[in-house]
Amino acid sequence: MEPVPVVWKGSKMYWYVDQSVSFQGDGSKERPFSRISDAAALALPGDTVLVAPGVYREYVDPVNAGREDARIVYRSTVRNGAVITGAELLCGWVKEGDLWKACVDNSIFGAYNPYTTFVYGDWYFAGKSKHTGAVFLNDRMLYEAGSPEECAAGAKSIYSWVPEESVYKWYAEQSEDGRKTIFWCNFQDKDPNEEKVEFTVRRECFMPSKTGVGFITVAGFKVDKAATTWAPPAAFQDCMIGPHWSKGWIIEDCEISNSKCAGIGLGKYYDPDNDHYFTTRHVKSPTQMERDAVCRGQYHGWLKEKVGSHIIRRCDIHHCEQGGIIGRMGGVFSLIEDNHIHHINNMMELGGAEIAGIKMHAAIDVVMRRNHIHHCTMGIWCDWEAQGTRITGNLLHDNQKPDFAQALPGGMTSQDIFVEVGHGPTLIDHNILLSDVSLRIATQGVAMVHNLICGAFTFVGEGTGWRYTPYHIPHRTEVMGFMTILHGDDRFYNNIFIQKWPSEDYVAKSDSRDELQIENRRVGTDVWDSYPTYEEWIRQFDMESDTPDMAKLEPAHEGHLPVWSEGNVYFNGALAYRSETGGRVDAEHTVNADVERTESGWVFRTDLYEYIGDMSCRRIDSDILGKAFEPEQRFENPDGTAIVFDTDYFGKHRGTRVIPGPFAAPVKEGVVK
């Protein structure tokens, strides 16, 4: 019998799915499908797929795209009640010595066996030692051991941010005939036959296998446990759920957790001519192949009309080991708002240059607002082409390595925000940044306005080398040009700086090398003291000459760009830029600023407003911020309209007296929920 919809509402069809049914239905309310995939094969523009609570152990591959005026909606009828998982139950455990043993037939994996596939690729630095698969005990990922002996020893990881959990381990090997995967696990005092034990089988959970399947809404699902692969920028970017190079997806009210690599993907399509090129062929640098990917992307439809403009909102994204949200080019013009992103890469089994709560390459006109991001190796990382990017109204804290954990060889340094090798304009405003590094700034063209900044600026004038990167026609993807990073072109208006953490230089292992790396931990804008003001910079260019001398001006063309700093206040020893105007350095008082979790939610506490006094500052807008130097694009909204900073962190109106920091008025009694 051909499946038929049961309810018509205008042009909309409703398909029903319930995994608890004892027979396969036709998608009607009375006879629902048992699998989401059956509805996904039939849903057309305007249709809604309603999924009842239950665990759906399947890969959902939406066949048809919606339209901007007729989306296809997949909705869990109970928020997080419908679970789409890439894992299967692993039963039949037998105790052998100190370990438990179970095995599965490899036919369950199809063409992709996660226990013979390693996490590796371009920009992966931690060694080819971890598989894409994983074993879970009661929804918590176990640590992979390199041998049965290591598994039995159950030693704590010296790198893990949660070492007490690292004693739970697994090891997998192939049978001699290659037909079975054999698991050995150390469950400590748990009996796996009495607990829930799962292992990842599928590579993705909800993602089109082809590109161009746009205008889909996924709402209210729990999506977890997939054997995702490493997702660097010049490769196919795998994930548990994502639009796969299309336009107009909405992922909302979902819980996304326990991906081996990426949770949500807004990334790149598969390009056989540039997929892990450096890792497989070696002869071209991965940086060069990123430039290649940008230009090839135009050929593959990287246009505003075809790709991007996604919305990710109100999701709980946690316990993924590469990133919560990962994207390269495919996330342009998107909105990421009101998400809770936490505990990313805490196991410290994976290490490389693509790890963060949010890691976006080419975040062109992407707005990230009102997100709460904490306990991540890195909070937000905007790599390359952060042009028109706005990071606003976010709370970031505890995005720093615990003192007890050693730095993972090949792992990344930690900070709230990292903006790297772009030309701007990148706008960071009204954020609360509480970790020991607020901004790693190996870039130019950044404006920071009305933030509370408790950590240092690092990599000022560093970390770019010969990586000349593209900039784009404003509010478009078409490439306008390429340029090295000159550094500077940065603006700091109406921020509060607090030396919350010790100011001594911090020594860590750098990226994939064994060199010692000394990083600044001093808070404030004085790290730009060697950079010119605008007046000092413009004087170099013989502006009154009709016949400028190219050779004479060459040093000026290669020098640092200017810096603006105005209306900022500095506490606890934080230091101001040498040409700060209208600011205040308070060397008398010691202030506190911190966040804590209470029974009623997260609470921010500070006494700094007792000492701001009657200080006020200028209202800032797009005209004051001006244009980023290289793309000659204003700090403005994605639609080209001006921004006036007349509302605060909570959206409250700023009156005639404008004060520094994220709040429009002093915090009463020093407490903000």
Structural key phrases:
673 residues; mainly beta; Immunoglobulin-like; Pectate Lyase C-like; 14-stranded mixed β-sheet; 13-stranded parallel β-sheet; globular
CA-atom Rg in angstroms: 26 Å
Oligomer: single chain
**Main β-sheet: number of strands, strand sense, barrel status?**
14 strands, mixed
Q: Which shape, going by the Cα principal axes?
A: globular
- Derived structural class: mainly beta
**Which whole number gives the mean pLDDT?**
94
Tally the helices: what do you get?
Answer: 8
CATH topology of the domain at 211-402 and 415-526: Pectate Lyase C-like
Instruction: Give, in spatial order, the strands making up the sheet with the most strands.
Output: 1-2-3-5-16-18-21-24-27-30-33-36-41-45
Give a structural overview.
With about 675 residues, the protein is mainly beta. It has a 14-stranded mixed sheet. The protein has a 13-stranded parallel sheet with strand order 4-6-17-19-22-25-28-31-34-37-42-46-47, with no helix packed on it. The termini are far apart. Residues about 1-10 have low confidence and may be disordered.
How do you describe this structure in short?
Helix content is 8%, strand content 31%. A 14-stranded mixed beta sheet has the order 1-2-3-5-16-18-21-24-27-30-33-36-41-45. Strands 4-6-17-19-22-25-28-31-34-37-42-46-47 form a 13-stranded parallel beta sheet, with no helix packed on it. A 7-stranded parallel beta sheet has the order 20-23-26-29-32-35-38, with no helix packed on it. The protein is globular and about 80 Å long.
